[in-house]
């Protein structure tokens, strides 16, 4: 079985091209391959499958084997994968995800994809809530971006103990489901600093749906404009929230290496 390691701002995934559909035991395969010491190493596994409603279907699994619904960095890499490998000649694709069909626009340079813009859909922004974690009060705004997020406003993202607070907020009893957690600090009305704890994977270097959720939460409350650069440990994403209600995310996609799995 051949695979490709790819990343978007350091948020890395193992990609399998699956023209017959996702492989049997994909959950366990995701756990094995994602392991940083005994596998390929990654934040999860993405299977590129046929779709009856779009050009391709993205079946995404977190590092712990749980099935994800949507991944912003992963879908950008999927767009680069299928174009660079001549599985399509389109530079505007539709991709079926667990969170709905997404439109992916590819910016091609020298015959390969360098940057990708994704229509992330219409966010659903909930009411801010106060959550208690270890005696600390955290202000969080729930946002749905095809997957669930909790956007938490902080003064300094570098000072947040993400590995301690992240898992407790991910499974907080006040929330109706397991969530991705974003710790955000607006730098000005057009720039947001962010760190993220992704459900099923832990702290990652970037999260496209999380960056989109962060802008939606902060713009809804008037803290930022509806267009901003989100700065993450792995780099920057440009996020805009149009008058039509759709959020668009632009960022790079990188192929790291190809490999073959031993039996």
Describe the protein.
The chain has helices at about 25-35, 70-85, 160-170, 210-220; strands at about 1-10, 10-15, 45-50, 55-60, 65-70, 90-95, 100-110, 110-120, 125, 130-135, 135-145, 150-155, 180-190, 190-200, 200-205, 225-230, 235-240, 245-250, 255-260. With about 260 residues, it is an alpha+beta fold. It has a 19-stranded mixed sheet that branches. A hairpin with a 2-residue loop joins strand 6 and strand 7. The longest helix has 13 residues, at about 70-85. The mean pLDDT is about 95.
> How would a crystallographer describe the biggest sheet?
19 strands, mixed
Structural class: alpha+beta
Q: What series of H and E elements makes up the topology?
A: EEHEEEHEEEEEEEHEEEHEEEE
Gyration radius, in Å? 18 Å
State the end-to-end distance: 8 Å
- The fraction of residues in strands falls at over 45%
Helix content: 10-25%
Q: Give the number of DSSP strands.
A: 19
Number of helices: 4
Extract low-pLDDT stretches: none
Keywords:
single chain; 263 residues; alpha+beta; 4 helices; globular
What's a concise summary of this model?
Helices cover 17% and strands 47% of the residues. By secondary structure, it is an alpha+beta fold.
Please specify the SSE layout and strand pairing.
Blueprint: E1 2-8, E2 11-17, H1 26-34, E3 44-49, E4 56-62, E5 67-68, H2 72-84, E6 92-97, E7 100-109, E8 112-121, E9 124-125, E10 129-133, E11 136-144, E12 148-153, H3 162-170, E13 180-188, E14 191-198, E15 202-204, H4 208-220, E16 227-232, E17 235-241, E18 247-252, E19 254-260
């Amino acid at each position: 079985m051949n695979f490709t390691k790819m990343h978007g701002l350091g948020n890395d995934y193992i990609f399998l091209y699956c023209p017959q559909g996702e492989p049997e035991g994909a959950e366990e395969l995701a756990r094995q391959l994602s392991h940083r010491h005994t596998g390929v190493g990654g934040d999860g596994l993405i299977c590129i499958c046929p779709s009856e409603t779009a050009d391709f279907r993205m079946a995404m699994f977190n590092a712990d084997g749980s099935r994800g619904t949507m991944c912003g960095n992963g879908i950008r890499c999927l767009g680069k994968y299928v174009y660079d490998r001549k599985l399509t000649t389109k530079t505007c694709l539709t991709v079926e995800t667990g969170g709905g069909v997404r439109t992916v626009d590819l910016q091609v340079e020298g015959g390969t994809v360098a940057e990708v813009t994704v229509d992330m859909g219409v966010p659903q922004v909930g009411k801010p809530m106060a959550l208690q974690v270890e005696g600390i009060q955290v202000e969080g705004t729930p946002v749905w971006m095809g997957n669930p997020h909790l956007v938490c406003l902080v003064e300094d993202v570098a000072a947040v103990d993400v590995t301690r607070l992240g898992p407790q907020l991910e499974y907080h009893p006040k929330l109706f489901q397991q969530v991705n957690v974003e710790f955000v600090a607006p730098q000005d009305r057009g720039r947001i600093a962010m760190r993220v704890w992704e459900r099923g994977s832990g702290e990652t270097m970037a999260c496209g749906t999380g960056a989109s959720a962060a802008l939606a939460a902060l713009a809804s409350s008037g803290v930022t404009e509806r267009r901003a650069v989100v700065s993450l440990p792995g780099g920057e994403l440009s996020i805009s929230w149009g008058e039509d209600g759709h959020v668009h995310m632009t960022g790079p996609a990188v192929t790291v290496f190809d490999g073959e799995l031993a039996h």
